[in-house]
Write a structure and sequence with these properties.
The chain is mainly β and 675 residues long. 3% of the residues lie in helices and 18% in strands.
Length: 675
């Protein structure tokens, strides 16, 4: 089973805020040697045994203490270890090396659904090796009444009682073995506590009602990666404690359900993240009480059903992430109350159909909508899916479905659309004039869909209706010919990707009306020539790998060679990428060259050749026919060859000719092995 990682489609969340540490003296204690070390990163104050009389003054001055108890023979740290540390403000206790490996998949008899990106988390592998043998005895913290920060890591057993009235602000308990229950007694009377983290505790199975009820200053609560935690009580906080909460992260636990009303009073909550749990349903009023919540994350749960009032009370929410849940039932009015929503992620669901008017609630505010990668894939969308229109929508993603057709006016209610992705719908046929009402489109992804063998002007029209389109992706569409004026409606097109089609011809005038084409990708097609008017475009990057543009010619001595066509030298400032187009061709010799010959290329044995196109350079007077170094040849001509790499190239200028012979025999680097 792979290690439990964070990232991919899931935005990485910000870590717990770290307080500024005092410049006051710090010290360390090692349970293995039973000694204290006093000092900062500079010279130490000294090393002495615990309890020595001359240590008391130093202990009283110490503000930050780090306790390391990694010895396997240690059962409990001494209860009076901190008796003299009356001024201690920051305490870090590490009872073992911790854990950084995989989780066992032992969350229960249920197997993880195939759609899940990662299997269910269980307890860490090698449990007997990673956990610390030491625990914290009761009364261990009895004398630390000035403590403001406490970090407990990899210790055995429960956290001891923290004295009431302690000005503790930050508490972190991580990788604690044998720590099963969290109740209100642990934090009773800590009215200044602001930040709590319970992370990667393999045995934590229960958080009792009222566990955080006295925490009237609590701002952030992180309960992450506790795989045996299956449920949250309906009353975690009192109204006074809930009123101060700003961020709640409950990620990667085994939670199967949340109780409606559990957020009552959380009016200041700005972020709620429930990603990677095992929540199965969202009943009515699940999040009621979080009146100001702008962002709700529910990625990678087991949600199958969303009720009508699941998001009731979230009128202020702007971001909702439901992606990669096996949702098969979504009430048609589920988003009706989300009148401020502008980002909705619904990728990777199991819906077989979308209800008409599903997005009527946020119709005036919705800006980004993701409906891609369903399993099984959607086969159709209702024509009135956007019956009220989405005037603010800028991005619509319908990729990796099985949509076969859409009405001509499907996008007419989306006038602000700038990005449309319907790629990998291998049965989709785009009707003519489909984008006539979307003049603001800037990116259009149509790859791996069905197109006619000939791309004609009727497909996108001849009028410049797509005036802002910058990028068009149409690879792997089986297109064989591009007719005249095919892209006339896209005057500002800068990047066109047509690789891996079946192109055999590009007609003259295909790029009429395109004023600023900078990158053209024609890799993996069957072209043998480019149109005669090709030089009218201002292309900077032309990609022709695995394209047989080379023309055969004969030298004066009758020997055959390969040359690029005449128009190649007329395309100024263009970087040619031809690696692979001559892989199967035999090597040939430089020299001669018939009419139109400008560049020759020779693949090197054991290497892979590539070159950057050089505009036609005049021969150096009196230059030898071969062996002239590149540096000598280009000396004084830097204005014509600016930006060219000279490493590994040999140039020969043939007297009386106008072509340059380029050869690159640099060895390919072997890929580095991953450890």
């Amino acid at each position: 089973m792979p290690a439990y990682t964070w990232g991919g489609l899931i935005p990485v969340l910000e870590p717990m805020p770290q307080p500024d540490r005092d410049a006051a003296p710090s010290c360390r204690y090692s349970a293995a040697s039973g000694t204290f070390t006093f000092g900062d990163s500079g010279p130490s104050w000294g090393v002495a045994e615990r309890g020595a009389a001359d240590n008391v003054a130093l202990q009283q001055q110490c503000k930050s203490l780090s306790v390391t108890a990694a010895s396997q023979g240690c059962e409990h740290l001494p209860a009076d270890l901190l008796a003299a540390f009356t001024g201690l403000r920051s305490l870090s206790v590490s009872c073992g090396p911790g854990w950084s490996g995989d989780f066992e998949d032992d969350c229960g008899p249920e197997t993880s659904p195939s759609w899940r990106a990662e299997p269910c988390m269980g307890r860490p592998k090698g449990r007997d090796k990673w956990g610390g043998a030491c625990g914290l005895p009761e009364g261990f913290l009895a004398h630390t009444r000035a403590l403001t920060r406490l970090d407990v890591r990899a210790c055995q057993g429960p956290v001891p009682k923290i004295p009431e009235g302690t000005p503790l602000k930050h508490l972190s308990v991580a990788q604690a073995a044998g720590f099963v229950t969290w109740d209100e007694a642990i934090l009773s009377g800590l009215h200044e506590l602001e930040h709590i983290t319970l992370d990667s505790n393999p045995d934590l199975a229960e958080i009792r009602e009222g566990a955080f009820k006295d925490l009237t200053a609590l701002k952030t609560l992180y309960i992450n990666r506790n795989p045996r935690l299956r449920e949250l009580p309906g009353s975690l906080f009192t109204d006074a404690a809930a009123a101060s909460l700003e961020r709640v992260q409950i990620l990667g636990n085994g939670i199967t359900a949340v109780t409606p009303g559990w957020l009552n009073g959380c009016g200041r909550l700005t972020e709620l993240s429930l990603d990677r749990n095992r929540i199965r349903a969202l009943p009515d009023r699940t999040f009621e009480g979080a009146l100001s919540l702008p962002e709700l994350r529910l990625f990678l749960n087991d949600i199958t059903k969303v009720d009508r009032l699941a998001f009731h009370g979230l009128e202020s929410m702007t971001h909702l992430y439901l992606s990669f849940n096996p949702i098969a039932s979504l009430h048609k009015d589920a988003f009706k109350d989300l009148t401020a929503l502008w980002n909705l992620w619904m990728a990777g669901l199991k819906l077989t159909a979308l209800s008409p008017g599903l997005f009527d609630g946020p119709s005036e505010t919705l800006q980004r909508l993701s409906l891609e990668d369903y399993s099984p894939p959607l086969r159709r969308l209702p024509g009135d899916l956007f019956r009220k229109g989405l005037p603010a929508l800028t991005s619509l993603r319908l990729a990796s479905q099985d949509i076969q057709t859409l009405p001509n006016d499907f996008l007419h209610g989306l006038p602000a659309l700038t990005k449309f992705d319907i790629s990998k719908n291998r049965s989709f046929r785009m009707p003519n004039g489909f984008f006539d009402k979307n003049p603001h489109l800037e990116k259009l992804y149509l790859y791996e869909t069905i197109f006619p063998e000939e791309l004609t002007a009727e497909m996108f029209g001849t009028e410049p209706k797509l005036k802002r389109l910058r990028r068009l992706r149409m690879e792997k569409n089986g297109i064989r010919r591009i007719g005249p004026n095919a892209f006339a409606s896209m005057p500002e097109l800068t990047r066109l990707e047509l690789q891996a089609n079946e192109l055999t011809e590009i007609a003259e005038g295909a790029f009429n009306g395109v004023r600023n084409l900078q990158e053209l990708n024609l890799q993996g097609n069957y072209l043998t020539s480019l149109p005669a008017d090709f030089t009218r475009t201002d292309i900077k990057y032309l990609r022709l790998r695995q394209v047989a543009l080379w023309q055969r010619a004969r030298r004066k001595d009758g020997r055959e060679c390969l040359v690029l066509p005449t128009y190649a030298e007329e395309v100024k400032n263009t970087k040619w990428s031809l690696t692979g187009s001559v892989k199967v061709l035999p090597a040939w010799e430089a020299g001669g060259g018939g009419p139109g010959a400008r560049l020759l290329w020779e693949p090197c044995e054991g290497g892979e050749g590539s070159f950057t196109f050089l505009t036609s350079l005049p021969p150096a007077p009196g230059a030898p026919s071969q062996g002239l170094s590149l540096g000598a040849f280009l000396e004084g001509r830097r204005s014509q060859t600016s930006g060219l790499s000279t490493g590994g190239f040999v140039v020969a200028c043939v007297a009386g000719g106008t072509f340059v012979y380029i050869r690159n025999c640099a060895r390919r680097r072997r890929p580095r092995r991953r450890l």
